[in-house]
């Protein structure tokens, strides 16, 4: 799926849409479900992206990254 995600990200830069794409280095499949620092950050990012409007999400993401 990673190559497809990269392709979608590239395509989205030319479209008038909100598309959030983040990569975490050296992570394995479904790593965001595991209870370690990066997993917690990713889960918070996913939750906040669902809960908030795009501009509000960026603010919530910034706060979650610092926790």
Q: What key attributes describe this structure?
A:
67 residues; mainly alpha
Describe the structure.
The protein has about 70 residues and is mainly alpha-helical. It has helices at about 1-10, 35-50, 55-65. Helix 2 runs antiparallel to helix 3. The N and C termini lie far apart (about 30 Å). About 0% of the residues are buried.
List the helices and strands and how they pair.
Blueprint: H1 2-12, H2 37-51, H3 54-66
Please provide a brief summary of the model.
The protein has helices at 2-12, 37-51, 54-66. With 67 residues, it is mostly helical.
Which stretches are low in confidence, meaning pLDDT under 50 for 5 or more residues running? none
Q: On the 0-100 scale, what is the average pLDDT?
A: 81
Give the C-alpha Rg.
Answer: 13 Å
Q: How would a textbook summarize the main sheet?
A: none
SS summary, helix count: 3
Helix content: 55-70%
Question: Structural class from helices and strands?
Answer: mainly alpha
């Amino acid at each position: 799926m990673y190559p497809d995600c990269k392709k979608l990200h590239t395509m989205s830069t030319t479209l008038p849409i909100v598309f959030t794409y983040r990569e975490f280095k050296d992570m394995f499949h479904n790593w965001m479900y595991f209870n370690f620092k990066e997993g917690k950050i990713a889960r918070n990012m996913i939750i906040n992206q669902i809960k908030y409007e795009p501009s509000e999400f960026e603010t919530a993401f910034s706060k979650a990254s610092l926790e």
